[in-house]
Amino acid sequence: MLPYTYLKYYPPQFILRNPLLEGVYDAVIDGKKVAGIVINFTNIKEVISQLDSSQEKEFCLSFKKHTKSILETSDFQNDILVVHNYYNKGLTVFLKIDENKQSVPYIEQFIGYFVSRIQKWLSQDYPYIHFTSESGYMFVDRTEGSTHEAILRTQQQAADMAEKRIHSKYIDMVLNMRDIVQKQNIRLLAQPIIELDTKKVQAWEILTRGPEGTPLENPLQLFSVARQTNMVYDLEMLILEKAMSLVEETRTQEDIYINFTPLTLGNKRFVASVKKAFERHPAVNPQNIILEITERDSIEGMAFFKDNISDLRDIGIRIAVDDTGAGYASLHTISEVLPDIIKIDRSVIENIDTNRVKESMLKGLLLIARETGSLVVAEGIEKKEEADVLTRNRVDLAQGYFYAKPGLLQKERVAF
Predict the structure, then answer these.
(1) Band of the pLDDT at 340, cuts 50, 70, 90?
(2) What mean pLDDT is reported for the chain?
(3) Which residue, among 298, 372, 363, has the nearest Cα to 333 in the 3D structure?
(4) Is the dihedral of CA 294, 122, 86, 137 positive or negative?
């Protein structure tokens, strides 16, 4: 049998007869303060949606390992009585509080410590994941009912407090996103896409930034909130509208890449909305517009997706698949869509000059591109040596900080 100090982090279920809860009983009966703390992961569905099936399993195992490590090595370890998975959305922790400690500051210190350590781990191992949480806590009160009932009541009240905070936060997010869309409070930047043979700008990728000086200026956070509030479609249609206006204003003749999630591309209203946008912007040539399928979401089960792609091509629009090489979803999308352009993910390109396996992966992706008749864009080029490998392998186009950082779309064109 495993020792108590190990088992307490993995209780088989939340049942009060479980001997793992004896510490809670003992502390409450001895008259010590015990707090039930619920930490909910408010965007867990959005986080999981960014992972494929193998990554999801790895993420869950890694999360459990890091949670255990964080709690076992913290200054709070001697006061932790029980840790329990709370409906796969977060944690319930029962924390003993000594008389010489201030109760509420101690609880909030614990919550802050745990969340900050989780965020630090994610920023290192999963930098594309933005983690959000909300918490609630209550003290075990034995003045009414049995100890058994008091512990259950505490856990439920703490969970209710967390949910209320989440609900309030959700309303704020919805109102904030609506305000951004209604006021068109976004900025568009453009990053050049370079033709490797001529070193000339062949296209521009439109990149979005939220309200300046706010957390939503970061595009990862902006789209995370848009997804959680079911406003991805509204945001992406705003981006399309502003991008077309920008093309008209600057009289841009090069191709324009605009990012869209599968959710938007598979929306039954999408094609009609795109056609109306072209009517409002007659100077924009559909043949210069490339819609880039972003994220690693699967397109399976999207009833309108394939028909929409076909209708968009009839207009003259071309289709690109992003993140190729980063996971299964993008490869599956290529086989289903047969895109005009394949964009190779930065994870394949980074340090490709010193990694023969990565160059072999590049060669394999180039073979796929030839089979589908697709142009290839290599993303995330940051040094000359990486660019040299691409040139040697006759990649069509390249994009990255080595050539230029995102900036304003200008009328003047500069050769690289």
Answers:
(1) very high
(2) 83
(3) 298
(4) negative
Q: Identify the pLDDT of residue 248.
A: 95
Q: Are strands 187-195 and 200-209 parallel, antiparallel or unpaired?
A: antiparallel
Domain 9-174 has CATH 3.30.70.270: yes
0.70 cut: is pTM over it? no
The answer to whether 314 and 286 have CB atoms below 8 angstroms apart is no
Is residue 45 a contact partner of residue 89, using CB atoms and an 8 Å limit?
Answer: no
DSSP structure class, residue 416: -
Contact 328, 52 (CB under 8 A): yes
Angle, CA of 357, 121 and 34, to the nearest 5°:
155
Whether the CB-CB separation of 343 and 292 falls below 8 Å is answered with yes
**Contact status, residue 188 vs residue 243, Cβ threshold 8 Å:** yes
**Cβ atoms of 183 and 237 closer than 8 Å:** no
In the three-class reduction of DSSP (H, G, I as helix; E, B as strand; rest coil), residue 332 is classed as: helix
- The residues pairing with 187 across neighbouring beta strands, listed in sequence order, are 209
Task: Give the pLDDT confidence of 54-103 residue by residue, as tens digits.
Answer: 777 788 788 888 888 888 888 888 888 877 764 456 788 888 887 666 67
Q: Phi/psi of residue 122, each to 5°?
A: -65, -40
The pLDDT confidence band at residue 143, using thresholds 50, 70 and 90, is low
The residues facing 136 across adjacent strands are 38
Burial class (CB in 10 A: 0-12, 13-18, 19+), 312: buried
CATH (one of 2.40.50.140, 3.20.20.450, 3.40.50.620, 3.40.30.10) for 184-398: 3.20.20.450
Ranges of each domain in the chain: 9-174, 184-398
Q: Is the pLDDT of residue 5 over 70?
A: no
Helix (H, G, I), strand (E, B) or coil at 55: helix
For residues 226, 334, 304, 55, the Cα torsion angle rounded to the nearest 10 degrees is -50
Q: Would you tell me how many other CB atoms lie within 10 Å of the CB of residue 268?
A: 10
Q: Which two tokens stand for residue 220?
A: 């990862």
Rounded Cα distance between 83 and 393, Å, is: 53
- The CA-atom distances, in angstroms, between 273 and each of 249, 299, 337 are 21, 20, 21
